[in-house]
């Protein structure tokens, strides 16, 4: 996984609450057996005027000129500013894959859905929770100024505006550690393999019915 | 971490404590996973990850796989070759290959036990009280109806569970949703859950594990409890659960993978403890009164946009909060509905009875009872019934429900997720309104430009007969 330490980039405003993962990446694209290549279909139904199909060349498709990511000023955006409950619905990790593949490195919102929030950390994408009033201020600033940028520092846990205003955010220590170092958390867990075996041995004695081997029929 | 107090434990606390392998210094916890369910859409990249890192599954026998999201609901006699869409076919083939290569038991698409992953787990007794259960699917909360800790995970975590039989977790907060009193006739588990979501909102349960309790829940069948837990995620909670009682134990007894003999007795004794202690402390408690709940219909593009069948589509003018007002306006525009339209005035194009929320035998019985001896409205382009599994289908056919549906003009299909998310050929056309027993009314969910209204199986059946929403209680008289 790509590490995340600091990032500075253009902010794109996604001004609606309850953005669901069906909206982030519609179901027809989940048929892929790969982890990459979802970027062109990010927000497909909002971004294009026609119905998208898997494995299609999206460069020729009619774009919705009103959609935020189609506006030239947000073309190179790498920080998504969003409203509450971003990423609700389906657990599809294709949603963070699509956001990351498009070029986003961080998402700022007043709240995220739990599964989506967790999935972001596995993909080098940093979800940042800031208070509603702060997010509102950032929306205003983003709309007001072409090319508005924010600087995110995961080590310091801050988001800083061009004028130097810094906002602190909270993040789980373990998730931060993995993201800062680009760690494979399976590797980290396997360092505790002995603990897992000890747990299993003890549990097998007290609750043996949990260990019926389904593959044995 | 919360302060340790002398208060009793919640059901969630008990399940958490029983599965805690290790708590690290940074507060992150290693939680052991008893059962892992897999399907074709969220697993291929996880298997690929195992191969790339040269890792093997930690405990093969804990896994159960089936193909459900992509499978056609017709022409199943041809097996995988009958899947017309080559991209879907590849994904189903890939699941077969991965399960073969790693040795994971799979119910393939011609196995009579195949079905929606959240229907087959309980049906086969692969879901047992007291387990931790995960699957790369947000509706894994369904299994919480058995007093399990069950939730959806992403593909990276699918790989993590395959490789380690554990997940790295932080403990959630405890919420109790109590539904007191009694339900009126024609009011089902689906209506209860939609009413709960309407009350607490689609993010109301974010960060919480919800336990559903109260007299109404205690009196519900296992299948109705599954419907309620299934849609916990639509209230924002990854986890929903119900305490174990006789109803739970009676349902599990005799299932193919359930324990037997002495092991069964030992298990039941342990399961009897799977309830919150009387003095357990919850971070939040929500109360609803069963008598107040009417048959529910969603009018918008989020499950919280819901009202009783006697109600009306809201008027955004009356909403003070500008973000909410914008949300209502956008939803009404997408749904093609004018403010203040009576719910019964919404005309329908299609009806879908199915999904992991409502495709079990009781759901089909409930719908069949309404359509029996009646005909589907000529207004509809299609009304379809998609059983949740091959076992449900066989049971329904044995009871003659298939004949009732077919005689009334509904289509009787093969099991799968089908039009709930429209990954296969079953989908809505642009602008079409659908009465659906599924779980999400998001934009485009059931097809590009499609308009979904979430209802119970009984309400969907009533809508199929009328061609518009009708209070099912009027048809029951």
Kindly describe this structure.
The complex is a heterodimer of chains A (217) and B (477). Chain A contains eight helices and seven strands. In chain A, strands 4-3-2-1-5-6-7 form a seven-stranded mixed β-sheet. The relative contact order of chain A is 0.16. Helix content of chain A is 31%, strand content 15%. With 217 residues, chain A is α/β, with parallel strands linked by helices. Chain B is of the alpha/beta class and 477 residues long. Chain B folds into three domains: 11-169, Aconitase, domain 3 (2-Layer Sandwich); 173-243 and 261-274 and 282-292, Aconitase, Domain 2 (3-Layer(aba) Sandwich); 296-475, 2-Layer Sandwich (Aconitase, domain 3). In chain B, a hairpin with a 7-residue loop joins strand 13 and strand 14. In chain B, helix 2 packs across helix 5 (155-164) and helix 12 packs across helix 14. The longest helix of chain B has 17 residues, at 86-102. The model of chain B has no long low-confidence stretch (mean pLDDT 97). At the A-B interface, helix 4, helix 6, helix 7 and helix 8 of A face helix 2, helix 3, helix 5, helix 10 and helix 11 of B. Chain A: Belongs to the LeuD family. LeuD type 1 subfamily. Chain A: Heterodimer of LeuC and LeuD. Chain A: Pathway: Amino-acid biosynthesis; L-leucine biosynthesis; L-leucine from 3-methyl-2-oxobutanoate: step 2/4.
